[in-house]
Amino acid sequence: MTETTETQTKSKKEIIIEKKKRLVQNPRSIVIRVSNASIPANIVRSIFDLDKVVNNIMKNTGFTVSLQDAKKAIEEVKKLSSSLWEEIKKVVPSLYAYNHENWQELNDRDEVKETLARARNAMVFIPRSNECAQIAIGFKVLGRVRLEYSNTGNLEGVNKIAKIITDYAEKINSLNLTLSKNIQKSGENNGNNDN
């Protein structure tokens, strides 16, 4: 590798780290370290995508998205979040009385977020919807528990958590698709009503 290429690569890494440092300054930011041992990056990206879809629904309500369609969509995301947290409470008994709507209680402190964000495999998420923040924190909890089980040799636990993560990743992807299609149809129907 030439010196110029090394400098350019280093600059890209520095730019990414600086961007992550800026993002973690947001009090709503969530830092998730991705790996196949805890939470794969593609699953975290699907949570980001769901948040974008929800944000688009909120922004376009009354314009290209009917109020009724928006309410239905948000209710589906709330159901998914609640369902995920019911599963989490089964595998993490200490969270039995936890209200997932208070997701910020489980989020890392600012100093911890800054440290985590320096890692190459860290993704910083600034959720626009509370429901997607709840889902992201839920996956973060599952990732931690999976690592704990892995470190203690609890293969049944690792497998159980992996199944929950996989099942909910599929549900998130399915919901992303469904909401995107429904919102597109809603926009087309609203456009047709103008004639």
Summarize the main sheet.
2 strands, antiparallel
The assigned structural class equals mainly alpha
Radius of gyration over C-alpha positions, nearest whole angstrom? 19 Å
Number of beta-strand segments: 2
Name the helicity range: 55-70%
Listing every helix as H and every strand as E from the N terminus to the C terminus, the arrangement reads HEHHHEHH
Give the number of domains. 1
User: What is the spatial order of strands in the main beta sheet?
Assistant: 1-2
Q: Which ranges are low-confidence, i.e. pLDDT below 50, for 5 or more consecutive residues?
A: none
Kindly report how far apart the N and C termini lie. Answer: 61 Å
* Strand-residue proportion: under 5%
Helix count equals 6
Instruction: Estimate the global geometry from the Cα principal axes.
Output: globular
Mean pLDDT: 92
Task: Quickly describe the structure.
With 195 residues, the chain is mainly alpha-helical.
